[in-house]
Amino acid sequence: MRILFIYPKMQLYVGFSNMAPTAALNLASFMQREGHAVRIYERNIDKKSVLHALDAFKPDVIVCTLMFARQIRDMQAVCREVRALRPDLPVLCGGLMASHFPELILKEGLADYVGVGEGEYTLLELLEVVSGQREASTVQSLVYLDRDGEPVHTPLRPFADLGDFPETDFSLLPMDKYFAYYPESPRTLMVYASKGCPCQCTFCFNASYNRCQYRTRRRKTVLREIETLVRDYGADGFFFLDELWGCDKKELRAYCDELVALSEKLGKPIRWVCETHIGMMDFEDLERMARAGCFMIPFGVESGSPEILARIKRDTPLTGSKPTQTTARPLASTRCLSPFLAFRTRRRRRSNRRYTLSSG
Fold first, then answer.
1. What distance in Å separates the CA atoms of residue 346 and residue 336, rounded to the nearest whole number?
2. Report field, pTM of the whole predicted structure over 0.70
3. Are residues 236 and 349 in the same domain?
4. 342 vs 205, 305, 347, 356, CA distance in Å?
């Protein structure tokens, strides 16, 4: 089949001229390996009309990736335009935001089906539904409306082995449009080495979307992608999109050693950023990461109040922030940032603020 992936416009993060639609790119790469023709209509980059995208590719199916709330308005406009121009085209929707509000999307008439969670195998099976080869009720992790307009939720599917997924085909997008600027690496692109996080923080999407399961990709696959982006697209740095980088210490050390070797092979330094958990890294870990090119580690403190930390199921020790930053201080090439999310209660705002400031 011919699958047109649509990635709606979104308000962008500071520092990124555009964020590469990693989820749509990985999904399109998978479907291409399975023998389907794919194209990504990335509306932050492609200024042509919806009509032009449909006429140029002539898709059999539309797949809309809704990852963020900032995409909802454009997603509504695009799906309604597709419905008006090609009412015969099946519209499928997936992504982080779609997975949390599937019934709303369906009842607004924006899509025929919503895939919940990771979409590779759900989409593969759903194409059989669209072609009349199977019933929607047999596809796991799917939401659709029955004949009476009532939502049907099929059982969630077990997570796939990330090693079964192909390397990302970066040729599906103009990767030079997605460079983020840092002084250390002006041409930074995004990659990922793992999905999920074992923590159960109540404010995070991880518990419902990844079910608190941590899975890793094959290290050789990730390193080949990094090499491709450096050699073929001119990248000089990477932002690891992992929810929790370095959860496995053995894997952390192997990555650092192989990134050093890859830098030597390419004849240029590879600089990178990752996000991790307070208290996970000791000096040896940070020193190894700095040698391998890591120049920034954002992590969240959330609060210094024991009451609030317990309420949001955040197992950060109250004294965890200072040691993490102090440990990294001798490593002049690595910055540890600790943004606050300002969780608080009405009755104890002053005491919570005092705890937070004194512990961080």
1. 30
2. yes
3. yes
4. 18, 10, 15, 9
